[in-house]
Design a protein that fits this description.
about 180 residues
Length: about 180
Amino acid sequence: MLVRLYTATFGSIQRVFEDWLIGTLARLVFAGVLLVYFLNSAMTKFRGAFPEVSVGAYAQILPKRMEAVSFDPSRLSTLEHVIVYAGSYGEVILPVLVVAGFLTRLASVGMIGFIAVMTYVDITAHGVDAATIGHWFDNVATAPIADQRSLWVFLLVVLVLKGPGPISLDAFLGRGRVRR
């Protein structure tokens, strides 16, 4: 009796809310928690006119390479310039796409990749300490990398799998649902 009541109650809740709540709520949480974080970080990579990345962008993204070339970006390879421009613009464009719900699944995959690269650079090039990296299952949930970024990625995985919800540009333009 209790099992049937439990199953019926939560089954009904799932049927009513699942299609629209999960994706919409995930985007809302992303906007509230991460949008300003990423946009503020991105703005440190541009100077004066928005389209041009600053030397600081190169120093943030490729710190060891910039040090090796005495902080002169003109001495970097074409690939290194592409990496810096892609990272700088990705940090602006991808979060906006996620929040707007436009190309949401693709933008979420891009953000997951961005976070992976950001984490790699923080650990290998910026030399963050062990406390900042943290460990899972250590009873300390404040490590910016192991704990916080895994939650960020989980939120984005939800958007990849569930989509943006009906209150999104994808839904408005007919891209919100993957055919099954």
